[in-house]
Amino acid sequence: MSKAAAWPEQHASDLSAMQHALALAEQAVGLSDPNPRVGCVITDAQGRVLGSGHTQGAGQAHAEVMALRDAQARGADVRGAIAYVTLEPCAHYGRTPPCCEALVAAGLGRVVAALVDPNPQVAGQGMARLAAAGIQTETGLLAEAALEMNIGFFSRMQRGQPFVRMKIAASLDGQTALRNGQSQWITDSAARTDGHAWRRRAGAVLTGYGTVRDDDPRLDVRLVPTARQPMRVLIDSRLQTSPQAKLLDRDSGGGQVLIYCAVDPDTHPNAAPLQAAGAELCRLPNAQGKVELADVLKDLGRRGINELHVEAGAKLNGSLLREGLVDELLLYLAPKMLGAGLGMAEIGEFQSLDQALQWRWLECSPVGVDLRLRARHIAG
């Protein structure tokens, strides 16, 4: 995923306004999908805020329109003003009209975008239209932070699949459960709440049949406020899931349920009960009679999923990791040692150290009594 060129020396008010816009974009998390999370701040030449806003739910106003509406509500004149936006204003008709045209019509004098939009329907055209209208345009300010804000959207636009984040809660000696399967709770309540905040960022939460069988999770967001629930995705090659599983509970408040299988739903006896319980079944088999995981990611990309949050067991974790399908690890380590138990992932055996999967650390932060670690995959 590409990054914008480094921003030259900027005026302090430019930096402050874009930081404000990024804070606004954060408010679109759990709201704007499948659209990107975008914030916009409009200021006068002295840096005074005239209007601000962030992208609303799909089909509703984008950040630039919200900022223009806010300025109008304040009675502010935005002619000749500066708009700071965390992603290039769109240039196409989708569910809403092009934002670049709204900025031109409002008479803005300058537009600063953190990043060029990776959507092929935009891809520089928004900034080009602004420039053609005589508006000064610049890109690159706080580009790295803006990319992280929309890393899933960039992944879907550039790779055709979501950004995959795998969450694992484990002990210091790397165990996710005792040998008898007991795992609730290894980490403390603060880590569990924090984990729901990361679920909230995702368009979908994925697990495997084994986890549903053993833990019967709901896979919804309930420990933090959210405007929308992520899709719940299950890998169940043989359609063994009970129609009474909690993730299928219509009263749980969770999002759509999608089950990927390898058997034919038209002939399998458990297909109709699962469909009656509200699940959509999608057959994506591989040569081994299991679900083809790479095809799952492509299908989720086509469905508009930007970020995929994985909370699965060691077998599915291992398969995803072995196939190079995980972009980021989100690890919660409890200050406990469990001894012999179930590990994080069944990756298999390597014959030499240079076969090891490589990661780089992004973050190490205490969360209550536990530790949160984030690592990004280094492509081989």
Gyration radius, to the nearest Å?
Answer: 23 Å
- Strand content of the residues, in percent? 15-25%
Count of extended strands: 16
Tally of helical segments: 11
Low-confidence segments, given as residue ranges, are 1-7
Give the termini separation.
15 Å
Q: From the helix content, strand content and strand pairing, which structural class follows?
A: alpha/beta
- Helix share bin: 25-40%
Indicate the overall shape: globular
Order of helices and strands: HEEHEHEHEHHEEHEHEEHEHEHEEEE
What's the mean pLDDT score?
91
Structure report:
- With 380 residues, this protein is α/β, with parallel strands linked by helices.
- The protein is built from 11 helices and 16 strands.
- Strands 11-10-9-8-12-6-13-16-15 form a 9-stranded mixed β-sheet. A 5-stranded mixed β-sheet has the order 2-1-3-4-5, with helices on both faces. Strands 7-14 form a two-stranded antiparallel sheet.
- Helix 3 runs parallel beside helix 4.
